[in-house]
Amino acid sequence: MFALNRSHVVRLAFSCLLCACSSLTEPGPGAPPLQPEPTQAPSANPAPPANAAPTPPPPAPAELVAASHVLIAYKGSLRASESVTRSKDDAQKLARSIQAKAKAGADFAALAKQYSDDPTAKTGGGSLGKFSRTQMVKPFADAAFALKPGEISDIVETPFGFHVIKRTE
Fold first, then answer.
1. Taking the model in full, what pTM does it have?
2. Which residues, in sequence order, are CB contacts of 27 under 8 Å at separation 6+?
3. In contact, 132 and 126? CB cutoff 8 Å
4. Pick from 120, 112, 123, 115: which is nearest to 91 by CA?
5. Looking at residue 133, what DSSP letter applies?
6. pLDDT by residue (tens digit) across 78-126?
7. If both were cysteines, with which of 59, 80, 142, 156 could 163 make a disulfide (CB 3.0 to 4.6 Å apart)?
């Protein structure tokens, strides 16, 4: 009789394990034969069935701009606070004055903090961050998207009042 050392025991256990595992993965007696693996990989984009509707292309990523604004509201404009008592004409005159200061190089954030009737713009220096066209009312979006970074808009009227817009990106 021969002596089994540790390496012999490990090899014997490994061989038994391999035999046991192959019995789990190979068909037993009477089982149908295995189908051979296809020699050609399936297409990454299989052709859709003939009666299937065409798949629309994914939507294009929305164009974004970044801008700041000063809003001058007037009595009766949307979301105007009760403290806003100026007339529409007075609001437009004030917006023109702010626009002139901005175009002359005044600090836009300081103008927003001083004059804006938009509470968020007032505390955030006028910054609106990045936005798409659909996130803003049409006149505002059209004006903001027409500007180049650093440019100041003409006076833009929306239901909220008069805006002076500076595109930042």
1. 0.65
2. 33, 34
3. no
4. 115
5. G
6. 999 999 999 999 999 999 999 999 999 999 999 999 999 999 988 999 9
7. 156
User: Tokens 């300081």, residue?
Assistant: 110
pLDDT single digits (tens) 11-43: 544 444 444 444 444 555 555 555 555 555 555
Alpha-carbon 110 to chain mean position: 29
Q: How far apart are the first and last CA of the chain?
A: 87
Residue type, 91: A
Note whether 166 and 67 are within 8 A (CB): yes
User: Is 126 strand, coil or helix?
Assistant: coil
Q: What are phi and psi of 139, to 5 degrees?
A: -60, -40
CB 143 within 8 A of CB 134: no
Judge contact between 102 and 166, C-beta under 8 A.
yes
Residue-wise burial string across 103-116, b where 16 or more C-beta atoms lie within 10 A, e elsewhere = eeeeebbebbbebb
Residue whose structure tokens are 């927003």: 112
One DSSP character per residue, 18-71 reads HHHHHHHHS--TTPPPPPPPPSSPPPSSPPPPTTSPPPPPPPPPPP-EEEEEEE
State the Cα–Cα distance between residues 26 and 20, nearest whole angstrom. Answer: 10
* Axis crossing angle, helix 108-115 with helix 88-103, rounded to the nearest 10: 160
